[in-house]
Amino acid sequence: MKVRSGCSQYPSLLQIFIIVFYVLNTVMTYIHIMILEEHTAHYIIFSILLSISGYFCIKTTICDPTDSYVIQQQKSRGTPFDYEEHQLNQFCELCIAYVKETTKHCKQCNRCCEDFDHHCRWINNCVGGKNYKQFIGMIVFTFIILIYSIIVNGRVISQYNKQELETLTIYSKYKRSLLIITIVLLVLETIASLLLLQLIVFHIYLWKKGISTYEYIIQRRSKQVQPSNFSEFNIINNQESKMDIIKNNREQEEQSVVFRKDKEKQASQIYTNSELMKKDESLCSSKKNSQSILQKRKLTQGDSDDSQKEGVINFFSQRIQSNVDLRLQSRQMNTIDVKTPEITQFQ
């Protein structure tokens, strides 16, 4: 099985940036120490701090934090492994191995990290039980180096217009460019030192709580998912108000249905009355037609002239009367408004 560490994987952009920044800061700090009065003591102090910080950086980066039981099982494939003897209750389907409860599979590294804390993108490696102490030493001594570099670079910028800088051959040639680089480094060092201070305080908090970074993140997510008692009370009240609104809507719907049925009944009664009137009219018209036919027959079949004249007079008088009746009925029909109920009225 190959050793997998921060150096064996493809370097990330953050890892390349931190290496360049670290080397450039070290070179510029050594150059600026020569301007200080006690440069020998500063060289010794800075070299000791740099060696300790470099040691912890290298140890944290090249360490393989893979679970030792996973390595053991992958080396001895085909042979039986007694996971009950080692009290391994979890099984990783990606690594195909039994692991401890504190072991977690890292997606970035694609391996099971023993006592997993977090994946550090700056070193491109996981931080777990095998390299957690080295990681704490790395961030602490890197923070001290940054504070030391800030003090040195600040003193150099304050002495920029003095003759001490002109005595150095490097500053006599590249005075402005080195000053710009120093100012940029000073800004980056200040930002990095603040971030490292926050990280140190955070890990002190985790140490007091007795939890890892992964467990802290899981706890925060669970708190966000599970609301507080007050929010639960609000949710219950909202649910009750929603149920009341649903009941009111249902009652309104039932009332609208009843109102619609009543309107439909009224409309059907008006419709039936209009049908009866039409039937009466049809009967009257049929009677009048039959009477007119009989009268026509009488007119055509009458014997005397007087009877024919009387029949003609009766015929035209009845015809005029029927026209008058029809006009009156049409006016009555126009006064009756038969409206079908619209659906929008009940919504």
Automatic annotation (TrEMBL):
Report the domain of life of the source organism: Eukaryota
Q: What class of enzyme is it?
A: transferase
Q: What is known of its domains?
A: The DHHC domain is required for palmitoyltransferase activity.
Q: Does the keyword Thylakoid apply?
A: no
The residue ranges of the Palmitoyltransferase DHHC domain are: 88-219
Q: Where are the transmembrane segments?
A: 12-35, 135-158, 178-206
Q: Name one GO cellular component term.
A: Golgi apparatus
Q: Which family does it belong to?
A: Belongs to the DHHC palmitoyltransferase family.
How does the protein's chain sit in the membrane according to the entry? Multi-pass membrane protein
Q: Which PROSITE patterns match?
A: DHHC
Print the organism lineage: Eukaryota, Sar, Alveolata, Ciliophora, Intramacronucleata
Sorted alphabetically, the keyword list is: Acyltransferase, Membrane, Transferase, Transmembrane, Transmembrane helix
Record localization? Membrane
Return any one Pfam family short name.
Answer: DHHC
Which reactions does this protein catalyse?
L-cysteinyl-[protein] + hexadecanoyl-CoA = S-hexadecanoyl-L-cysteinyl-[protein] + CoA
- Any one Gene Ontology BP term: protein targeting to membrane
Query: EC annotation?
Result: 2.3.1.225
What is the name listed in the Swiss-Prot or TrEMBL entry for this protein? Answer: Palmitoyltransferase
GO function terms (MF aspect):
protein-cysteine S-palmitoyltransferase activity
